[in-house]
Write a structure and sequence with these properties.
30% of the residues lie in helices and 23% in strands. With 340 residues, it is α/β, with parallel strands linked by helices. Strands 6-7-8-3-9-10-12-11 form an eight-stranded mixed beta sheet, with helices on both faces. The chain has a four-stranded antiparallel beta sheet with strand order 2-1-4-5.
Length: 340
């Protein structure tokens, strides 16, 4: 994808959550995101993948300002190309930018107010942002147009969330996000709660809206087949760190981080030739391992991995890998994994 203009830059972002303990215990923190840096280009779909607990959703919500970062910054370039450091803004200063940065949550059942009609749900954000006057005919016609873009009938405006199927509710969630004319949308596991046939419909809708409305997505998912279908670039996360970043096809065809190789090998496939079983369990994010966090499960781990944190380095063409052995070929790594 030919696009060199960044819409968002995430720079050394950290997000820690305090963990409650006893009176005499020292204060501890769950390290959900640890020194994460990457750019999201305007008009692309950048996907985050990784196991549950890797920090994907936390990162998405921190980028949107729903969580306040522990440190680091998020820079938004959507205002006439000028960089705005979102993490430095007060809530009052951030409010005008809220319409540019939206989210579609995982569960369409709990993310919609059951006491409000679809019309009221969509109207709420539109009126708050001052796009149309609440209750006006212009507002009503605008809501009709948004519903139509999302594959819903006009009659939906008077119905309540419980009167829809799961796929239709997710369309309502998409309509709510789309109605305020955003530039950037975080899709947080937005198809994982849906049936496979409905998933494809929602993914096609998101792809169509991206082209028509000139949107940029941060797509969060653990489903590798979905990620491969929708993504321009992919970031692989492990225990709060970014393990690998690159063009989607490059990462899927030529993974260079041992974790990415194991992750792809575990995905269901008709032509499955290999299976890599990682040893041990994912360490606790409250007390992560020293050095490379993956070394406790890695089939390539050496002494340096236990002491030194590997930098996220570019091995060519924007393909970045956080591994001390990034230059070792994918084939060699796969062969080594099979011997373990």
């Amino acid at each position: 994808m030919e696009n060199t203009q960044n819409l968002l830059s995430i720079v050394h972002l950290k997000k820690y959550f305090p963990v409650s303990g006893g009176i005499f215990q020292r204060k501890r923190f769950l390290k959900a995101n640890e020194d994460v840096s990457f750019d999201i280009k305007a008009g692309e779909t950048f996907s985050l993948v990784g196991e549950s607990g890797s920090g994907k959703s936390t990162l998405g919500r921190t980028v949107l300002g729903l969580y306040k970062p522990t440190s680091g910054k998020v820079v938004y370039y959507g205002k006439e190309g000028r960089g705005v450091e979102l993490t430095a803004l007060s809530e009052k200063e951030f409010r005008p930018l809220r319409k540019d940065l939206q989210i579609i949550f995982q569960d369409p059942y709990s993310s919609l107010n059951p006491r409000m009609t679809v019309g009221q749900i969509i109207e709420e954000g539109v009126a708050t942002q001052g796009l149309y006057k609440r209750g006006s005919e212009a507002m009503r016609e605008y809501i009709f147009s948004v519903l139509e873009k999302c594959g819903l009938q006009k009659e939906a405006i008077q119905r309540y969330p419980h009167q829809f199927s799961g796929g239709q509710r997710q369309r309502v969630c998409i309509a709510r996000a789309l109605a305020v004319k955003p530039k950037f949308i975080v899709c947080d596991e937005c198809v994982s709660a849906l049936d496979a046939s409905v998933q494809s419909q929602i993914l096609n809708l998101l792809t169509e809206l991206k082209e028509k409305e000139n949107l940029t997505y941060l797509f969060i998912s653990h489903d590798l087949s979905v990620v491969r279908y929708v993504s321009d670039r992919v970031g692989v996360m492990y225990l709060g760190d970014m393990a690998e970043i690159g063009e989607a096809e490059e990462v899927f065809k030529n993974p260079r981080h041992p974790y990415t190789i194991a992750l792809l090998a575990s995905a269901p496939s008709k032509n499955k030739k290999e299976e890599i079983v990682l040893k041990g369990n994912v360490p606790s994010p409250v007390s992560p391992p020293s050095g490379c966090k993956f070394h406790t499960r890695c089939f390539m781990a050496k002494e340096c991995c236990t002491k030194l944190v590997p930098p996220l380095k570019d091995i060519g063409g924007g393909h970045c890998v956080a591994c001390h052995f990034a230059e070792v070929s994918t084939r060699e790594k796969r062969n080594l994994a099979k011997k373990i």
